[in-house]
TrEMBL record:
Residues 78-215 form the SusD-like N-terminal domain. Keywords: Cell outer membrane, Membrane, Signal. It is found in: Cell outer membrane. InterPro entries: SusD-like_N, SusD_RagB_dom, TPR-like_helical_dom_sf. It comes from Algoriphagus aquimarinus. Its main location: membrane. This is Starch-binding associating with outer membrane. Transmembrane segments: none annotated. Residues 378-495 form the RagB/SusD domain. Belongs to the SusD family. GO terms for cellular component: cell outer membrane. The lineage of its organism: Bacteria, Pseudomonadati, Bacteroidota, Cytophagia, Cytophagales. Pfam families: SusD-like_3, SusD_RagB. Residues 1-25 form the signal peptide.
Amino acid sequence: MLKYISKICLLVPAIFLLGSCWELDQEVLDGVTPDDVKNSNNPQLIDVLKASAYSRIVGSWGGHNSIWSINEVASDEMAIPQKGPDWEDGGIWLRVHRHTWGTSEDAFNNSWNYCFTAVGEINNLIISFPDVELLVAELKVLRALPYLWLLDSFGNVPIITEESTGGNPTNNSRQEVFDFIEKSILDNIALLPKEDTRTTLNYYSAQAMLAKLYLNAEVYTGTPRWADAEAAANEVISGPYSLSSNFFANFATRNSGSTENILTLPYDENNAAGFNLAMMTLHYLNQNTFDLSAQPWNGYASLEEFYNNFDDEDVRKQSFLEGPQFSSDGKRLEDLSAEAGDPDGNPLTFTPKINMLAPNAFRQAGVRVGKFEFAPGAGQELSNDYPLFRLGEIILTKAEAAFRQGKTGEALDALNQVRKRAGLDPLTTITADAIFAERGFEMFAEASRRTDMIRFGKFSQPWWEKGSSEAFRNLFPIPLQQINANPNLVQNPGY
């Protein structure tokens, strides 16, 4: 029988982690028996059974102190300037930006726990419903997603599956984790739908995962896989997606109709919290700009050099909030607590120059992250669907992979597709630096910059207040909290 409900809480055996709740508005199956579940491919049933796994993936990705945070602040895109005691936070964000982090940073531990919580929930579901073929196939590909983040961030992490026994797991090598991700996808991708699903996996989002995996294969394993990256990108490009004519439509509050977004995290301020970028980046007084129900924290700002790299004609430069700030009724905002030395004085003005990273950055220094729409009247949490994979990135993946193989014509054609949408003239020649720059313009604030910098050999180089850093910092440390809890874990080299 069918019953209309709005909230489902899946109860699964606590083999790894307890189950979770996922807010939905859909028809679900009521009174399901074991015989109904066994060998069932009923799409309604599968949607219900997989819901808690996806809720874990949505999780805290887009929040402060998250995996998004450590990837952004460790790059040359973004910093959190310390303003006296404000944003001191024990110095963690200074250390992350300067590449002087230690092994016990809470943000690393939070990111580790976020990924393995998702892995645990997925394993629970596979154990509980092993006979639902389509469900198990999708879950195994979904499990590869947090493992891709773990591979990229921490490298040598334990592989935990539904077949793992109890006890404290040991590290697997980075090559083993790479192989596990690849096999998980390749063994199950044929069972995924080809419909445009957006908030759940399909054939094309799985190919996007492969494209990202292969693009970074040389970093992860020492062996390049450029042809495989291009092939996976081409599969996605052949799918039901197209570049949105309006770049910012991909990041709007109501962006579910984007023609470009392939896989998104469906945040909702009421039912799926975890994306609070407005709080993280806006000045306190910007509460009046957007009539927000909570006061922002005045933190994340873009670096001047990164901002200045954008061409003034590039529509993507509007990804930043820069210049004079106003209330929703058009009145100039005045920061009466602005520092005496701030050349802009009291009128709230975001300027590219940040006077210092610490200890006394000006309250209004630095352009802010405006790529995602801040809906008027929003609370601490945003309702924008966060794009994990979108066509713009995939086209740039094709461009880079083709270029690395010497196929400059194909690379140029792909790169210029993205530039045309941005309102820029086409390039007639192509270099590795041009591709790197284009990825920066296109992918700002989408947590890809650190990975790109590592792949292009730029992550250890100095910028602004960061000096040259050691190559071992291309990986974050295995969190000390995890090593203390599990003596079988071995720390990454250099730490």
